[in-house]
């Protein structure tokens, strides 16, 4: 499926819940979050039906997200069902790692292709301050168990000037020790994230090179997303940078998103798209869904406007509501 700008759209991020058992200070509003009610969530049957339609328009890669996706019961059978669909090449998931220790074996059985695990610090006390949850040791046990089970892992870090700049070097050291892929994601000005100061990828790269040596570009892709990866001498993993703000990559965007309430979203920055749930409730066919999805992909914006002072069609929701 090509959009109007000749981009090959083959990847969707599907949020199964906006709920999360962590309350990370840069993501959740301090006054509490308003969540989607259970009856307004897409059912797993609806998600499977949408995925079948997505395959027909050329989607081959799926990432299950949240909130914390594993906070919703039944997600692993959903992963298995999507994984078994003809035309699907990979199914991965995001997680904060809280449930990981208990579900690693089930994820292996479901043949998941990889996990993106959020980890913004390697210090237990600092972890509690950022997430407001005393779960550092539990998350670390889950990460180690997933590594032992040979599930491909990428650690995701959001560098924020006010929160975790002193943790960049310890996190890199941890990734090197574990021989896993580490990614630094620039904070995007969405929702509660606008209250904090992002750090550019260039600044993080300079810190890493000062402490660990020269970063050597890796030419091949290491996943579905836009990260640019680098190697370090003596490190069998890789370090990636997702630089949506400082190095706009919209020209190569290959993704669309589906929120937990069924809103098909073609660009993270804008609120344009279409609510699929009302049509699903009325029994829309897979072919009709396919046509509707193809039309929305064709309307996908050329690029985001995070640097522009836009006042209309701008997304007001937070990342946990959209699908992280």
UniProtKB/TrEMBL annotation:
Domain Radical SAM core: 4-226
Gene Ontology molecular functions: 4 iron, 4 sulfur cluster binding; cyclic pyranopterin monophosphate synthase activity; GTP 3',8'-cyclase activity; GTP binding; metal ion binding; S-adenosyl-L-methionine binding
E.C. code: 4.1.99.22
Residues the entry annotates as binding S-adenosyl-L-methionine: 26, 67, 118, 188
Pathway assigned in UniProt: Cofactor biosynthesis; molybdopterin biosynthesis
Record-level GO BP terms: Mo-molybdopterin cofactor biosynthetic process
Residues the record lists as binding GTP: 13, 94, 154, 255-257
Positions with a binding annotation for [4Fe-4S] cluster 1: 20, 24, 27
Reactions accelerated catalytically: GTP + AH2 + S-adenosyl-L-methionine = (8S)-3',8-cyclo-7,8-dihydroguanosine 5'-triphosphate + 5'-deoxyadenosine + L-methionine + A + H(+)
InterPro entries: Aldolase_TIM (IPR013785), Elp3/MiaA/NifB-like_rSAM (IPR006638), MoaA (IPR013483), MoaA-like (IPR040064), MoaA_twitch (IPR010505), MoCo_biosynth_MoaA/MoaC (IPR050105), rSAM (IPR007197), rSAM_sf (IPR058240)
Cofactor(s) this protein cannot do without: [4Fe-4S] cluster
PANTHER family: MOLYBDENUM COFACTOR BIOSYNTHESIS PROTEIN 1, MOLYBDOPTERIN COFACTOR SYNTHESIS PROTEIN A
Subunit and partners: Monomer and homodimer.
Protein's name according to its UniProt entry: GTP 3',8-cyclase
Organism: Vallitalea pronyensis
Lineage of the organism: Bacteria, Bacillati, Bacillota, Clostridia, Lachnospirales
Gene transcribed to yield this protein: moaA
């Amino acid at each position: 499926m090509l959009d109007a700008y000749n981009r090959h759209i083959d990847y969707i991020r599907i949020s199964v819940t906006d709920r999360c058992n962590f309350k990370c200070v840069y993501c959740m509003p301090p006054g509490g979050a308003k969540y989607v009610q259970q009856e307004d969530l897409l059912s797993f049957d609806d998600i499977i039906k949408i995925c079948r339609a997505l395959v027909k328009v050329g989607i081959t890669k799926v990432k299950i997200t949240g909130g914390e996706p594993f906070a919703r019961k039944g997600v692993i059978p959903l992963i298995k069902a999507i994984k078994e669909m003809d035309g699907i090449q990979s199914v991965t998931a995001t997680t904060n790692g809280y449930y990981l220790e208990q579900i690693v074996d089930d994820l292996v059985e479901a043949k998941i292709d990889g996990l993106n695990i959020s980890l913004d610090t390697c210090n237990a006390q600092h972890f509690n301050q950022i997430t407001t949850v005393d779960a550092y040791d539990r998350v670390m046990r889950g990460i180690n168990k997933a590594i032992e089970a040979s599930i491909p892992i990428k650690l995701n870090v959001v560098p924020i000037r006010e929160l975790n700049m002193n943790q960049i070097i310890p996190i890199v050291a941890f990734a090197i020790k574990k021989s896993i892929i580490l990614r630094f994601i620039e904070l995007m000005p969405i929702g509660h994230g606008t209250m904090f100061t992002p750090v550019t990828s260039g600044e993080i790269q300079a810190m890493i090179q000062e402490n660990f040596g020269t970063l050597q570009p890796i030419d091949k892709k290491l996943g579905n997303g836009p990260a640019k990866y680098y190697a370090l001498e003596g490190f069998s993993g890789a370090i990636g940078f997702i630089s949506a703000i400082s190095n706009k990559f919209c020209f190569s965007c290959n993704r669309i998103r589906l929120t937990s309430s069924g809103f098909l979203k073609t660009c993270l920055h804008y609120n344009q798209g279409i609510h699929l749930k009302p049509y699903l409730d009325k029994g829309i066919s897979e072919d009709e869904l396919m046509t509707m999805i193809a039309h929305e992909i064709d309307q996908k914006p050329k690029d985001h406007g995070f640097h522009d002072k836009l006042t209309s069609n701008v997304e007001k929701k937070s990342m946990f509501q959209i699908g992280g």
